[in-house]
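pinned: reference chain
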Amino acid sequence: MSIVAVDVGGTFTDFVFVDEKGNIHTMKLLSTPRNPEKAVIEGLEKLNFREVVHATTIATNALLGQVGLEVPRVALFTTKGFRDVIEIGRQNRPKLYDFYFDKPKPLVPRELRFEVSERTLPSGEILKSVDPGEVEELARKAIGMGAVSAAVSFLHSYANPENEVVAGAILRKLFKYVTLSHEVAWEPREYERTSTAVVNAALMPVVSDYLERLRSYVEGRGGKIYVMSSSGGLVSVEEASKRPVQIIESGPAGGAVAVAEFAKLLNLGKVISFDMGGTTAKAATVIDFEVQLTTEYEVGGEVHHGRVVKGSGYPVRYPFIDLSEVSAGGGTIIWRDEAGALRVGPISAGADPGPVCYGRGGKEPTITDANLVLGRLPDALLGGSMPLNKVAALEALKRLGDPYEVADQAIKMINLVMARGIRLVTVERGLDPRDFALMAFGGAGPQHAVFLAEELGIEKVIIPPLPGLFTALGMLMADFRFEARKAYPRDPEEAFKELETQLSHLNPDYFVRYADVRYKGQGWELTVPVGKPATIESIRRVFEEKHLATYGFKLDRDIEVVVVRVFAVKRRVKPVLRDPPAEGSPEISEKEVFFDGWVKAAVYRRDQLPLGYRITGPAIIVEDYSTIVIPPKWEARVGKFGVIEVRR
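pinned: its structure tokens
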């Protein structure tokens, strides 16, 4: 009976499972985007499991309108006079000089927004209580108009949620799916809080139905299932179904968690997590073995060079791993624009039809095709079970010009795009990437990692074991993690203790504290870690250090703690990672590889490399689900736990 981690990606669905002896096994299947659970169940059918850990993109895909996923009709109940808050939003424009841009379409049409005669003051005092009869009447009207899910967001409910609780009790008798804003975003700013509640209400039917189908299958075979959250922890199916906003970035979180665990094992204080798969590339930072978090996110919005364009999506106030994501993967399409200039992305061939060399009907050349024709990929993937058609890849690239020149230029261009994404989570956060090691994974990450390090001035690259399935491995390393928060605490230490007491029924092993802090008069906050005891003075020191690093200055002004939040963490048993054998003689072959010209490169099998073995570039290290490219002037060494450490 094994513990299985399942990561559904845009191109492949990855399985990593640990048997009773602690041995790690792997499997990789092509994803089924129109019916994501199909590939999950297909893989699980081949395994004997007792526990399943799952990462899914279904929440994001539903809001992006993926075929087969339909956002249900949601009814919104707000304080009288505030029905249009989700449409008015903020003043920021996603495209400052575009007079014809379209604002995101509200998830709740105006006819399904209902005003309730109630009022709570910022102090928490209830000026007017909710009339249950009024709420019931409005709810029945909403049901008659086809609403299947309800969101409640009353003014200042973060200060006192009593009116929301009363309204919620009425609505839960009539609706299967009900979201109260203080349950998903206990903090000020009525627009962001209302938007979070609405997004949660819209996702509840889609996510809960999907997870219920999976749970039914898993429990039918005697197992248990848990879901990866966006903050890097595991939650139960019940928790994910109740608050699906917390699994919007479920997939990318697993890889960052694995990087944090490996940083601890290797004693690396500063690490950049870089994940390049078939569709996108994602970057995050790990400092002192902790993944950096943010509470600002816009789901379904536009992304410009890895940065979410403010005002282009639906704001969600919930802890997320602070990452950038760019449309750069193995399946990214190479093309020429009307002026004849070579372009890469943002369109991806995905899993269906995939790159030309996959032989699944793809016609447009991709980054995978480019790497193949330059000799940087083996003749087959997935352990030899998926042959690659190099001739077809060459023919596709020829339509754009000299195939080798096009391939080389396209790879250099996509490397610049990904380097920009890394700078978003380092330079724009006041961090110098040269102070970090780069840990690269994903099916395509190790092919590009050293070139990114050269671009960013990074001296050390780490390729972990199982890079092509590293996100799934990370889920096996994740702990259970549950969050609670409180707005405007009078005494931070008392507020933290109150939240810890609130979460104590989970029997956590330890708590992690954070606070959203700003200078008085500022409009937005920074999230900072908080130690014990939590005093204003200690919080100020950490806040000012981060403010100086982020913005380059600090002020002689009092601070304001806007929100305190606590994570209850419950440890899980982690898979055992073993060192490779101390002795061995790997077989070495040679092939022609393009590095600013054709050169002979040594080719190795990773599973044959002993501990401490050194390889001087140019070289290619092949494994079942990924390929490591070591250019000239770089040297690789096999380290503890089987990591490949590459240095200039």
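why pinned: The first strand starts at residue 2 and ends at 8. The chain has 16 helices and 37 strands.
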